[in-house]
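The records we work with from here on pair a chain with its fold. The integers have meaning only within a learned vocabulary of local backbone shapes. A complete example follows; check for yourself that the lines match position by position.

:::
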Amino acid sequence: MKRNLDVVVISDVHLGTYGCKAQELLAYLQSINPKKIILNGDIIDIWSFKKSYFPSTHLQIIRYLLNLSEKGIPIVYITGNHDELLRKFSTMNFGNILLTDRFVLKYENKTAWIFHGGGFEASLQRSKWLAKLGGWGYDKLIRINYLMNLGLEFFGKERYSLSKKIKNSVKKAVKHVNDFEKTAAELAIENQFDDVICGHIHQPQMKEVKTEKGKCLYLNSGDWIENLTALELNENKWSIFHFEEHQQELMKNLEQLNFDYSLDELIDSILKKEA
């Protein structure tokens, strides 16, 4: 039986990259019945986009989300930095799908300010080729980690995350995460929002932040490369869903979609519907 949710927030899926856990995301989406879906940036990795690598499992995510929107479930697609090319279409509606750069969610007597967060990094704006190089290196690291984990699983050992280990051990990376969270929370408090919801840094989080000007709840939906997490709102309360805690059950119930489209054919079918 599917779990009923008021809102689900997902970010940093990076469809079109080797690290994307599309099968796991599909299993998660099939397990929930949300009233609204918010996709908070970097869903499709346009920076790393290659037609030579966009497997059917990744296409199934797009098709499944489109099917949900056609059934009347509103979807908010917030642009990130890896899919920033979509910003030229911001504020456009495609049926039940709203494309925007930020979104304000109202629930109970509260307001949540939702944006991806890539704009915080001045280095990203000044030197995108460096960011792309970093993304390329991250993708290579994920591939190496994937092969390493195949070996560990073969010998009955626990999986290991190289990038998590590196991020957690490098002081500069830890400071970057802390600065990101602090900046997002301070901006939300100054603008009198109760919650602020981000993606971008692949670090699932939910914590209260206080400053001299007030307080807010900072939330981050994590990613679907390593953490496999989502934010869920139900009965006016936020929580973080961790896929790994439910992996066995969800993967057992995974239903593969009968999907024979190529990427070009899928895009063509979407454009024909809108026309």
